[in-house]
Amino acid sequence: MATLSRTDLEHVAFLARLALTSEELGLLEGQLNHILEQYRVLSELDTGSIPPTAQVIEVENILRDDVARPSLTPDEALAGAPERQDDYFVVPVVVEGAD
Predict the structure, then answer these.
(1) Distance between CA atoms of 8 and 14, rounded to whole angstroms?
(2) Which pLDDT score is estimated for 60?
(3) How many CB atoms lie within 10 A of CB 9?
(4) Which residues pair with 42 in a beta bridge?
(5) End-to-end CA distance of the chain, in Å?
(6) What is the DSSP string of 42-90?
(7) pLDDT digits (tens, 9 = 90+) for 9-55
């Protein structure tokens, strides 16, 4: 697997409009090449028997239970409506040809 050269990093920094110092480029060069080396090690693993997944940890629902509670009456809900008809809001027609 290829490694990133100092020239590669300077080019990417230029494209990303990052003004990196020589020390920052040196630090990033070491860190990014370490990441690429770890990826190379992982790529040697036999994963043929492992099914593809999009989630590596169990996903759980973090939403609260839906509990029915008292709500507004139609008059309370429509109190600020500019126009209403019975228990409904009246809105302008937004589909052409629908009258």
Answers:
(1) 10
(2) 79
(3) 19
(4) none
(5) 66
(6) HHTS--TTSPP-S-SS-----SPP--------HHHHTTT-SSEETTEE-
(7) 999 999 999 999 999 999 999 999 999 999 999 889 998 898 887 77
Write down the architecture of domain 6-43 according to CATH: Orthogonal Bundle (1.10)
Structure tokens at 65: 């239970």
Contact call for residues 6 and 29 (beta carbons, < 8 A): yes
How is the chain split into domains, by residue range? 6-43
Sign of CA dihedral 65, 66, 68, 72: positive
96 pLDDT more than 90 = no
Each residue of 63-80: pLDDT tens digit?
888 899 999 999 999 999
d(CA 66, CA 99): 38
Q: Cα 81 to the chain's mean position, in Å?
A: 36
